[in-house]
Amino acid sequence: MENIRIYVEKEDIGKRIDSFLSNELDFSRNKVQIIIEKGFVRNQFHVIDKSSYIIKAEEALSVEIEEPVEIDIIPQNIPINIMFQDEDIVVINKSKGMVVHPGAGNLENTLVNALLYHIKDLSSINGKIRPGIVHRLDKDTSGIIVVAKNDFAHNSLAKQFSDRRVNKKYIGIADGVFHENMGIIERPVARSRKNRQTMAVVSSGRYAKTSFNVIEGYKDYSLINYQIYTGRTHQIRVHSQSIGHPIVGDLTYGGSNKFQVNGQLLHSWYLGITHPTTGKDLSFIAPPPDDFLEVLVCLRQNSLIYINHNDPLLFDLLDIKV
């Protein structure tokens, strides 16, 4: 059995549990109802055995999912960039092109395979397929990810993400010239009805909030600093597409690819958390990968028309590294 822990957010209060879990787990409503009927869903107080159960505030849900076959995830000696490590957490600058955890038909060469080789202990809350994984980055999104080394740290970090107390910033190169230097995108996100492999802005989806600042403007592109307040799948990519500025290289969501990059030019450059044990505020900064910097240099040399370096940390990160 694989156990998945899910924390309820404010906008989820009052929803039916089968509808909520169907969206959260990307399972059909019928499959979720069967899981509930088997007694595999519980909150911190009792088993939830009715699909009509209404979600309440401050609930932490635990869902057990039957694995059709026993899966052994193999530790692999894959190099990873460890930025910080102690007894509770490990912070990694994930490389572009690396999947975070194994899935159907993809059991090797993921971050989890590498973690199992390099890290002695990982939290067990999310089972054997996702040990230590509290949050994710898309395969072709590079940058900072924090991993839990024990269950106490995992619960603490998961609660911070659920309560939106984690500071997450990304930089991306987007298509087009923005007409305003900053803005906030608040549009619900869910699985696309046309293509279940992608996400979309859907009125019945989950609340999602992204703010953006234009850092540099070029003739046909813009360098954007994004901050996300929710953690929906593909959130920045979907929100960027929804305002007419998809991420360069993101062919899934309509991005251009004049520069022939492999995947979207999106990088998680800043992460701020509270340490699970000490309670101290920690922040981490990671430079973008080479393909991102190469495109940035090209744009600066050939079509730079606007600069607004209003974040000292980002200013230093980009100008020292380029």
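That was protein one. Protein two is written in the same sequence-then-structure order:
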Amino acid sequence: MSNLNLLNSSSTLNNSAWASAVPTGIKTTAGAAQAALSSTTGQSSMGQTDFLTLFTTQLKNQDPLDPVKNEAFVAQLAQFSQLEATTNMATSLSNFTSTMASTQITSSAGLIGQKVAVPGGPAELVAGQAVPASISLPEGADGITLQAFDSKGVLVSTQTAGAQTAGDMLFNWNGQDDVGNALPAGTYRFVATAVVRGKNTTPTVSTMATVLGVTQQADKSMLLQVTGGKTIKLSDVTKIYG
């Protein structure tokens, strides 16, 4: 009998074809391996334990006059070791992912009550207080126009600014209309227009919002519920204020 070769550890093939390819009554290594595998697992697909069962069965049923060569034996052991290491790695990675997800929601809960920068978020005006915000200008700007709209979409204020360097342009809206009248407390929205290299662009305006709650999604990503009825991804938060 020639030297034996094991199936690949990832193969879903079975030994049935091997066993049925010889005349009835003749015992083969494949037939013995198939019988051992079926009696152990009740199925013919191979996993880590099945691989070892097949391996040991082949060794027990090999031709003593033509045993498996040392090189083949070592190669088969290495194949099993690789399968075992891969299985253990997958288990460890799964456990690590679960632990990190639990840690993430615990750490994110510490943001409740904190103010975060929300891209495109609402501007919450409180009587007697300015509304801080920032405009993202990665290439700078030749000029800026900032408009404020109320909750009904009515334009209530327009401000302009000169040339700006690259980076975030910080500003505080005083909550007044264009003639200096104080506007009522409530939710407003900012829209910026920037002239960059002679072209009009609409850069992102980030406002400050208070985190009210934290939710973990099925894919383990984190969502923050903030004032103004807006929900944002934790990954979208660029700044946190105490």
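The chain has four helices and twelve strands. Keep this in mind for the problem set.
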